[in-house]
Amino acid sequence: MYFFAIWPFTPNFASPQNVRNIFSNMLPLLIVAIGETFVLITAGVDLSVTSIMAMASVFGAWTMTSDGGLLAGSFLAAPVGILVMLLTGAVIGLLNGAAVTLFRMPPFIVTLTTMMFFRGFAIWFTQSEKISNLPRAFVALGEGGIGFVPYALIITLALAMVSHITLRRAIVGRWIYAVGHNVKAAAISGVPVNSTVAFAYVVSGLCAAVASILYTARLETGDPDPRQTILLDIIGAAVIGGTSLFGGKGKVLWTALGVLFIMVIDNSLNMIGLSHFKIMIVKGGIILFAALIDALRNRLLGSR
Amino acid sequence: MGNNVLEYQNVEKSFFGVRVLRNVNLALQEGHVLGVVGENGAGKSTLVNILGGVVPADSGTIILGGSHYAPRNPSDAFRHGIAFIHQELNLFANLSIAENMFIASFPKRRFAAIPLIDRKAIRSKTKALLESVDLHLSPDTLVEDLSPGERQLVEIAKALAADARVIIFDEPTTSLTARETERLFAIIERLRSQRISMIYISHILGDVLGLCDDIVVLRDGEVVGRGTRGEFTLEKMISLMVGRDIEQLYPPRSTKPSEEKVLEVNGVSHPGIVRNITFALRRREVLGISGLMGSGRTELARILFGLDPFQSGEILLNGLSLGGCSPRERVRKGMAFLTENRREEGLLMGASVVDDIALASLPSFARTLLRLIDELRMRRAVDRVTDSLRLQYGHRQTAKTLSGGSQQKVVVARWLMEKPSVFILDEPTRGIDIGAKYEVYRIINDLAAQGTAVLFVSSEIEELIGMCDRILVMSNGSIQGCFERPDFDKEKILRAALRKDAIQ
Q1: On chain A, which terminus has fewer CB atoms closer than 10 Å, C or N?
Q2: Parent domain of B155
Q3: Is the pTM of this model over 0.80?
Q4: B269-282, pLDDT tens digit by residue?
Q5: CATH number assigned to the domain comprising residue B479
Q6: What ipTM is given for this predicted complex?
Q7: Closest to B337 measured CA to CA, from B400, B415, B392
Q8: Residue A174 is nearest to which of B307, B350, B362, comparing CB atoms?
Q9: Which of B348, B358, B362 sits opposite A185 (nearest CB)?
Q10: In what order do the strands lie in the sheet with B4-15?
Q11: How close does chain A come to B29, measured CA to CA in Å?
């Protein structure tokens, strides 16, 4: 709807070039947002996703680069590099999950500190320098595709499908919703609360790693400091999509729509010619509105 | 009755469609102590919570000091001179006595137009107030260093500091030692002589009879007895409290318990919670556990289900020790637990009723390889159970929108998806209406007939009498008596439950 409303003002908006642009910007964001949705449904929050992306990017590039990387030149470089990136995401996710469940620390604090720690670590590790000269096979992930369909799109769609099925049809998905609705009731009903919550953080870490793979491949460099601001877009997108910050509500599809919406706004306002700061103001307002609706909905239903 | 400080006129209150106060009329005279007694859930706490501004009344009027009174919130009530001494005390443990006293309005002293707290003034005022409740402590003492009894006195002093007209005591003696209790009573006497009015809620009927000028007996939210102290005896209060012996029906029991022991509890103790609990639960048996609030009945149920730890003793399920099994492992072994607090610990509330019911039995609907849930099979199984419970709900309805009775059926249904061998029910009929209660009783009977061993924890003695094969009575963390079905006697059971104070 917004798409058609904005069309007349920005003739270039619907050009194939721009639509393509929106989508390619959107895919990594969507992947991270899907992982974030898992955590949000458990009534937690994962602020460390951007730092996980940085860590995965740096570690992966460090493994693969032909400038003195661990596996420089080897045909194993790309697959092992990808594996290292995924592992990095999973391990940090597990760390978050363990801190939240075993030590009963608030998710906000846990992931805020891991965000700071790993962001700093990634920059220190590379001395704030980008790592380039990545293997061709890896970079292809960012540019290539099967026919007209880019790999990034295929990966994103596959991931979205698997996440959707996990949430809606698998036992662990039901458990994630149950924990988000009512932890105590879930525990009494025999739900393994701790491993369920930890699972959500691992998924979030893995998704961030996958997004990092796409980013890193597209930029052809291991970047210790990717755009930290997308963290807000990610959480904002989930909330706009209808995922509740109070837990228990959220769908992959909703999140996808939320991400699309954020990207379209971002892009169109950009084309109208608004400055970066004005765009931030508008986005902030929209996310606030969405969060407000969430809070009101909870209160209206709660008061009955 | 010329000088009523406080009057309730036709006050009504419902929670989520359940009426907890109906047409309540009462009066409190200046300088009198009004005792309020009744079983758990009779509406005592709601009665005073309305006065304290915690919840608003649905209808009716309250007259305080001659004018209409409807507090918007607790601090509004406090400004009107209502002081509430809670069951759980409301002091800031990390602050000193003096700071707690004046937390609402610190006396201020201006220093170069900056308002500062006048520490000297609050210390001297606090000192005087503490003397008036016989507490000889420095105003700078931190509240966390005080005993529960001393904290309570600080609360009373705080009420005096605010010139309270009415002081409400809600079960004030539960955490006090015998000596502290004596001291509290002496202070209540002194306050009475200062023409301060008080409302005193307690389970300990002897105290109420000794302390109060007027007594009100509540049952199911209604005032069933009202009068001066002289009009009451202990027996009269008990019979008014329990009342309605024949009008409520229980479905007939057709099966007898077998001799086979399913759950054995041997000498289970945990300091300060339960003491040396020993009993055995047999197949097809409905075993009741009776006791007042704080007697350890709920705590015991939670320990049996592995939700809380215990220090010594053992729990055997079908002859095998449960040791440190988590609730999850117990569920797998055929145990089920219905919590007394279905809103906070039972329902998912926001999820659909089907998801809510299927929660505990999800693994059995998973198709092997990918562990995906067979939605259709799950829905059919849920329908089968809800049909047998006569629970009706919409396709996408959430538990939040159901009535109390239907909500309880949802939680029960969750455990009936896989027939449990031991079912612990903690207050299964709390907050649901008579019709739904009957349904719950019927379900319990059916379960027992099908071979489940039922542990029925309740504060309502007559429902235990109506339902159980045996009743264990708990007080002060230990079992005070065991009654077999032929010897059920409401008054004997209530006496056993009140035994703690009989000993003292």
Answers
A1: N
A2: 4-242
A3: no
A4: 998 888 899 999 99
A5: 3.40.50.300
A6: 0.77
A7: B415
A8: B362
A9: B348
A10: B18-29, B4-15, B59-64, B67-68
A11: 36
